[in-house]
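Lab manual, section 2.4: Encoding a predicted structure.

Procedure: take the sequence of the chain (462 residues), apply the prediction step described in section 2.3, and record the output as C-alpha cells. A sample record is shown.
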Amino acid sequence: MKFSYKILFCTIIVMAAAFGFSGYFFVNFVFRTSLEREIGQAMDESSILQFAFETAALNVPSQYDILPDRTVEQIGSRLESSRQEGRRFLRLSDENRQILFESSGFTPDVTLLTAIEESSRTWRVIPLEDRYYIQTGARIYTLDRILYLETMHDVTTVFEERALGFEVYRRVTLVILILSSVLMSLLSLWLTRPIRFLTRATRKMAEGEYSYRARQISSDELGQLTGDYNKMAAALEENIHKLENEIQAREEFIGAFAHELKTPLTAIIGYADLLRSRKLAEDKQFIAASYIYSEGKRLEAMSFRLLDIIVTKKEEIRPQQVSVEEIFIYLESMFAGNGYDIRISYEPGTVNAEVNLIKSVLLNLVDNACKASESGGVIEIGGYYVESGYCFEVVDYGEGIPQEEIRRITEAFYMVDKSRSRSRNGAGLGLALCVEILRLHDSELQIESTLGEGTRMSFVLQ
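Recorded output:
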C-alpha cells in the first residue's frame, strides 16, 4: 500500500473515531440535560398533584372521620381530568398498597409502588408501548390515612430527539468524512511528493542512471532527506566512476604489461633459437648475445620497477632530516659524462625525507628528461625554498608532452612515444613509481609542459 493511502486511511479512521466519540458524548450530554429537566418537571407535577389531593381531601364533608376509598377514587378522577393539555396518568393506592384508582393505560408494574418509603419521593424511567415515561411515586398523609400517589410523565420526545440527534450526527459525520477524504487525498499526495521523487530517483539509480538526482521541493525534514540522498548519490556516482576508472586502468595495465613482456621475450627467444639451431660467425654470435643480454636487462629493470611500485603502495616510510647537498652531489656523479649538458644549481638546506627513495625519484625524472631530449641537450636540475617547503625540479628542452597526455603519463606502462621509449629501454614505469614515492612523503608531482619546447617536473618536500 502506498504511503499516501496509509496517511489517508489513518486520517479517516482517526477522524471517524473522533467524530464518533465526540458525537456520542455530545448527543448524550444534551439528552441527559433534557431528561433531567423532564425529571424535575415530573417531580414538580407530582408535588402539585399531592398538594391538590390533600386540598381536595380537606374539603370532604366532616361526617367522615376517615377518608373513604370512594372519595379517593373521585378525587383521583378529577385530578386526572384537570390537565388542560393531553392526558394525565396517575394511580392511587391505600395503606396496603392496594390500588384504589388507576388511569387507563397506566403501567401495571408495581415495582415503584413497593419501593416508596416513608417521607420519600422516588422516580424511574420506563418504556411502555413504544413510548417513554417518567414514573414518580410519593406518600400522602391525609385524614388519618396513608395513601400512595404515582404519576407518569411522557418523555418520549426526549428519546426521539436523542435518536434524531444520532441520525443527524451520523449523516453530518459521513458528509464531513467524504469531504475530508477528498481533501486529505490531495493533501497526502502533496505531502508525499518528495517521497515519490526519492522513489523515482532510487529506481533510476538501480537502473544504472547514477547521474539522476531527486528533485528537492521543500526545506523540511523530507527536503533535508532529499538533499542528503542527492549528496549520497553524488558520492556513490563518484566512487563508481573511480571504480570504473580503476578497472579500466587495471585492464590497460594488464594489456600493457603483457605487451611489454612480449616484445623483449620475442627478441630473446628468437636470438636464442638462432644460436641454438645453427652455427654462426663470431661477430653474429656476439650481436645475438648482446640482444639477449639487453632485452634481459630490460625485463629485469621492468620487474624491479614493478616490485618497487607494489612495495611503495603498501609500505610506510620513516623520514629523516637530510641535507639536499648530499642528494645533488649524488645526481651529479650518476649523470656525469652521459652525453647530456647536466646543469645543477640549488640552495643549501635540509628536507624531511627517506633519502634513497627521493634519489630514486630524481633519477627517474632526470632519466625521462634525457630520453625526451636529443643527445647533448640541456637538462637543468634545481632546488630552492618555496613557501610550503623545499622544491626540487628537473627541466628539459626536448620534445615536450601534449596537454591531453599529461594526465595519463603517470599511469603504469603509459608512454607518449612508445617507439622512442622502447629504443631507450623505457617501459613507462618510472613516473608511476615517482608518484607512489611522493605520496608516501605527502607530496605530489607537478608537470608543466609545452609541446616542442620542453617539460618541467617538480615536487615539494617539507
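Check your result against the sample. Confidence is low (pLDDT under 50) at residues 415-427.
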